[in-house]
Amino acid sequence: MLHTLTGPVVHGQGKGAAAGFPTANLRLLENAVLPPKGVYWTRVSLEGRSHLGVTNVGLRPTADDRDEITVETFLPDDHGDLYGKTIGLTFLRYLRETAFFPSMAALKEQIDRDAETARAWAARCPEADGFLTFSAEETRALSAQMAKGLTAGSVLVLRGDMGAGKSEFSRGVARGLGVTGPVPSPSFTILNVYDEGRLPLYHFDWYRVEDPEELYEIGAQEYLPGSGVTLVEWAERAEDLLPEKRTEVFIQPVTESTRLILVSPCRLSAGNLLLVDIKNPD
Length: 282
Ligand SMILES: Nc1ncnc2c1ncn2[C@@H]1O[C@H](COP(=O)(O)OP(=O)(O)O)[C@@H](O)[C@H]1O
Ligand SMILES: [Mg+2]
Fold this sequence. Notes:
It is a single chain. The chain has helices at 15-18, 104-124, 136-147, 166-177, 212-217, 273-279, and strands at residues 4-10, 23-26, 38-46, 49-58, 70-74, 86-96, 129-133, 155-159, 191-194, 201-205, 229-233, 247-253, 259-265. By secondary structure, it is α+β, with helices and mostly antiparallel strands. It folds into 2 domains: 4-124, Elongation Factor Tu (Ef-tu), domain 3; 136-279, Rossmann fold (3-Layer(aba) Sandwich), CATH 3.40.50. The longest helix is centred in the middle third of the chain and has 21 residues, at 104-124. The radius of gyration is 20 Å and the shape is elongated. The two termini are 27 Å apart. Adenosine-5'-diphosphate is lined by residues 133, 135-136, 138-139, 160, 162-168, 233, 257-259.
């Protein structure tokens, strides 16, 4: 379960620097576990401070004769000289596939767009943490671990497309709280309640909810927050029911079996428009 990649910054080919956007190349250990190839929004930790990063994992993004995998990070904001220093990279959001560009100018243009998308996410989730899991078991193990830190009144909103892994994540939370029986998806029941764990668990799935009124009728607001832990899948159906104090969990498939899981306390009021804007960043 990859969380942060750490290593010293080494000199790359200097092409980016020559074109006006120096990138930090991470020196990788032989056995380093890397995220799948792609371009990511990352948090760059350097000497106790954090910076916004756009990280390319893959072949160098300009045509050249070297074909080894590199982890190259563009830091759009001021950060001083990085060479020789140790940085930590936390992967937060997959932005796009890696691509080759005909010119440095074309690459620069794309990276500027990537940085804008990363900034929109950073504005929404300033205290985000990111985790990469390589199987459903790892996702369940991660959420089971997180469940240990949950308290009465915790509300977790699970976001991601169909098949992203929201229900797998929920299963892990249930296990972590001490639920031993099966944890089926509540897509038909809307709410499943578990009383056998350390705290009561309220597991919602609003996929089939057509009108938020249906949720008021079953008393859903009593669980938002409730006297235990509340999980909500498909909160998009009734965004206004969500309490402001909640944790947002964005689960994003990167490959068939890899998920990037962004966890962030919510800092904006329910039903904000920015969320809609960043749901489909292009
Ligand atoms: N790393 C992973 N984490 C979670 N699920 C994964 C992972 N890799 C593959 N999967 C598969 O993805 C599917 C996720 O399904 P589910 O949790 O029901 O999605 P959702 O509730 O978001 O619609 C499962 O079939 C699961 O086995
Ligand atoms: Mg589900």
